[in-house]
Amino acid sequence: MRIAGGVAATGAVLSALAPEAHAQGSGAVTEHVLAPLPYAYDALEPYIDAATMELHHGKHHAGYVSGLNAAEAALAKARADNDFALAQYWTKRAAFNGGGHFLHSMFWKVMAPAGKGGGGEPDGALRDVINRDFGSFEVFKKEFSAAAAQVEGSGWGLLHYRPEDDRLIVLQAENQHKLSPWGAWPILGIDVWEHAYYLKYQNKRTEYIEAWWNVVNWKQVAENLAAVKKG
Ligand code: MN3
After folding, report:
1. How far, in Å, from the CA of 192 to the mean position of ligand 1?
2. What are the chain's domains?
3. Do the Cβ atoms of 159 and 170 come closer than 8 Å?
4. Residue 191 C-alpha to ligand 1 middle, in angstroms?
5. What is the pLDDT of residues 132-185, one digit of tens each?
6. How, if at all, do strands 167-174 and 155-162 pair?
7. What is the pTM of this model?
8. How many angstroms separate the alpha carbon of residue 79 from the centre of ligand 1?
């Protein structure tokens, strides 16, 4: 994504959290952009198939980006027109599409080809904090998998870090943002909308989740944690 003024944000996942000048008064509306995938469509095979990746990034994620841009432009117009009932509608559309853009941007980065950055287990400070807050990596994995499997309808399984009390928290998000907590930032997430797995796994969401652990990029997750801690 870019911030107002045309300054390119860093590639960091959490750059999406940076404050932006959205259509305030006469300010320009931010133009969000779809970043390319950090690997080829087939790089996560056999765990996530190329056809799913191509549709997911090129159509679904792209749709959230264009939806966010359209919603923010419409919001600015509604504000200029003094139509605040309509502004509220576009605010909700922006929250949904913005949530989708943010989470997908993280999702691509917390995955990597199996054996080439993907899979295995976390180490270092991330491992320590997982052990501290969940008891062990195995317990964390079970809790996270269960959260993802049990999302009602479309949504995400997420691992958040909450700086206030220095805690990791496993949570679900319905759709793209509902149930999201305040004051805690996602550092790892799995998309469990059917579009994320149905071509290969059909209704077997738990098989998809089990396979997904083979492509988790723990180095990136550790960087996300460090970025949140740093503020
Ligand atoms: Mn998705």
Report:
1. 7
2. 14-109 (1.10.287.990), 124-230 (3.55.40.20)
3. yes
4. 6
5. 999 999 999 999 999 999 999 999 999 999 999 999 999 999 999 888 888 999
6. antiparallel
7. 0.87
8. 30
